[in-house]
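// run 5 | inverse folding | seed 20
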C-alpha cells in the first residue's frame, strides 16, 4: 500500500511517498526535492516552484511568496512590505493582484502549489490516487486547517489527516530509534521561522507539553549568502549586480546551488 506525506512550508513544500513500508522525499520535475511555495503570473499562466521563484527577481510584481502566511488570515496581520505584488482584502480572503492584470485568491494559489505536488506524487508512484497526510503548524487555526484541506482535496489528494509538524517529525523516525517514554524536544528550523516543541511520550502516545516559535529561519542564511556573493562579484567587476535583474537572478541561482551543496 502506498501513501503520501506533505510538509506544507512557508518557504518550501516537500512531498514524500511511502511504499512497502519505506518512505522517501521525492524530487519534482525540476529534479529538486523542495518546491518553493511561490506562485508567479506570466502571460496568463500561473507558474509554481522553481520557475516562479526565478521570477521573484525579474518580475517581482508578478510573484507572491510565503503563501502559507497569507492563508486564512486578515490583510492587517500580514507584512505587506515583504511582498512586491499588491495584496487586497476581499471578504474573508486575501486577494493577490498580479501587476493589475490578474487577481487570484490565496487559496486558489495554494491549490496550484498542491497541484504541482500532485504531479510529483503521481510520477513517483505511477498512480493518481493517494491517501495523504499533511503536516501543519501546531498553532494553526481551524480556518487555516479547513482551507489547507480543501486546497489539497481540490488538487486531487485524498486527505486523511492534518498532523502537527512536531508530531509528524516523531512519526517519521524509524521504529528502532523511537524515543522512549518521557519528554522529547523537537526543533524545527524553517525558511522564515523556527520553533521548539516539548512532547511527552507515553507508550507510543504523544501529547504536547510546551511550544515556542521565533521569526528566524533559513531565509536569513540565504540573504547572507546572497549578500556575500553580490559583494564579491561587485568588488571583482566594479559594478552593482543588484541593479541588473537578469544578472541578480543568476546570483540567486548560484546561491540556491550552494544551498544544495551545503545541505546534508
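// decoded
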Amino acid at each position: 500500500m502506498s501513501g503520501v506525506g506533505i510538509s506544507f512550508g512557508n518557504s518550501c513544500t516537500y512531498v514524500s511517498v511511502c511504499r512497502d513500508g519505506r518512505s522517501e522525499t521525492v524530487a519534482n520535475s525540476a529534479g529538486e526535492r523542495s518546491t518553493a511555495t511561490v506562485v508567479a503570473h506570466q502571460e496568463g499562466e500561473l507558474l509554481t516552484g522553481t520557475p516562479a521563484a526565478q521570477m521573484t527577481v525579474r518580475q517581482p510584481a508578478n510573484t507572491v511568496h510565503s503563501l502559507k502566511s497569507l492563508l486564512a488570515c486578515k490583510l492587517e496581520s500580514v507584512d505587506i512590505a515583504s511582498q512586491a505584488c499588491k495584496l487586497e482584502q476581499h471578504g474573508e480572503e486575501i486577494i493577490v493582484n498580479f501587476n493589475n492584470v490578474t487577481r487570484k485568491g490565496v487559496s486558489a494559489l495554494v491549490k496550484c502549489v498542491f497541484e504541482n505536488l500532485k504531479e510529483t506524487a503521481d510520477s513517483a508512484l505511477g498512480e493518481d490516487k493517494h491517501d495523504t497526510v499533511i503536516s501543519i503548524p501546531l498553532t494553526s487555526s481551524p480556518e487555516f486547517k479547513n482551507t489547507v484541506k480543501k486546497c489539497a482535496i481540490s488538487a486531487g489528494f485524498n486527505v486523511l489527516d492534518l498532523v502537527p509538524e512536531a508530531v509528524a517529525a516523531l512519526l517519521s523516525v524509524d521504529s528502532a530509534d523511537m524515543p522512549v517514554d518521557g519528554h522529547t524536544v523537537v526543533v524545527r528550523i524553517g525558511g522564515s521561522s523556527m520553533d521548539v516543541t516539548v512532547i511527552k511520550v507515553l507508550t507510543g502516545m504523544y501529547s504536547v507539553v510546551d511550544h515556542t516559535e521565533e521569526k528566524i529561519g533559513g531565509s536569513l542564511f540565504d540573504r547572507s549568502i546572497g549578500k556575500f556573493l553580490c559583494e564579491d562579484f561587485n568588488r571583482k567587476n566594479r559594478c552593482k549586480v543588484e541593479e541588473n535583474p537578469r544578472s541578480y537572478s543568476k546570483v540567486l541561482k548560484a546561491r540556491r546551488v550552494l544551498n544544495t551543496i551545503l545541505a546534508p
